[in-house]
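S.,

Sequence below, as promised.
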Amino acid sequence: MIRVVLPAPLRQLACVDGELALDVPAPVTQRTVLDAVEARYPMLKGTLRDHVTQRRRSLVRFFACEEDLSHEEPDAPLPEAVAAGKEPYLVVGAIAGG
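The prediction came back faster than expected:
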């Protein structure tokens, strides 16, 4: 079971409280986790990744085990602690402004 933490606006859009618990097939990668999120919560499709290119939205960041994974390859394996459900996969809305 993979634990996913979404920012409050996306939790509200998906009508969920707290973190998500998802079954993700091996290998556990950013792509497979995001595919599982979008499959279970189709209203989130396009909020995390572009519909066509599947690239991360510019104001969305991904973290796990205190590491910024936003620029990692989508098919790179996530840390073992995330794959084992010990640590959450964090989706964070970036802050922009001046």
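The longest strand covers residues 60-64.

Coffee later?
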